[in-house]
Amino acid sequence: MGMTFEAVSKWLIPRRRKVHVAVFLLTLLMIPGALTALQPIDMESYEMDSPELTAQEIINDEFSNAEVILGFLVSARQPQYIPPIDEWQPVPLLSDGTPDYSALPPVPQMIPAGEEWQGIDQPTAGILNLELLREIDAKKQVIVNHPLAPALKPLISDVTGQQTNGSMSLPDHFRSFMDGTSILTQDALSPFGTVIPAATNWSDCGALECLLFDDLNLTQDHIDLAAARMGEVSQNYFLRWLSLDRGFVADATSW
Asked: How many domains does the chain have?
C-alpha cells in the first residue's frame, strides 16, 4: 500500500538536505539531454540507405523514361459538328512535333455535361452506340499506325482475355466476344482437369443472327445483346469498362 502524505512528509523533512542535493544532481544530469533535444535534427547524420532506395535511385537515374503516365480529358461534340469518318483528320502538329492546340474543336461545340453524375445520354445507347463504337475503332488506327506502336506494351483484357498492343477499347471487347475467341464463350478446365462450361455464348442470339463485329449488317440490337451478356458474366469487369470509357476514351467524337 502507498504511503500517505503525512508519512511522506515525516520521512522527507528530517532528510531535506539530502533530498535537495539529490534533486540538484538529477537536474544537472538532465541538462545535457534537454539541450540535445532542443537542437535541430540533422537528417544527413542518419543512415537512410537501403536496398529499396538504392534500386529506386538507379531506376530514376538510368531509366528515367521507364514509366510515363499520361492523363487525358476527352469530351463529346455536338453531332452536327462531327465530320464524316472518311474526312476526319487528326489534330495537326507544329514544327516541333507538339499538337496544334489552337486547331482543337472550340468549346461551344461540346455537348452539355447533363445532370450531375448522370453523364451524356446521347446518342442512343450512350457509349454502346454502334456508330460511336465504329468511330472509336476507326480512330484507334491513329495509335496502331504510329511509328512507336511496335514498342507499346501489351495489354490483356480482364473481360475477354484477349491481348492487344498499346491500346484497348470497347470495340476490341465486342470483336473478341463475337468471334468466339473470348474466355467468356469458351469452355475451360478446372485445376482438377474437369471441364467448366463457357459462361455464355455468341452462337444462340435468339431472333437475331449472331454476326461478327465487323459485319456490315451488324445492328444496335446485336450490340445491346452482346453487352448484356458480357455484363452479366464478367464479374463487373465489363461494367467497369463502361464507366471508364464514358469519361476517358469512349467519347471519341471529340478527337
From this structure: 1
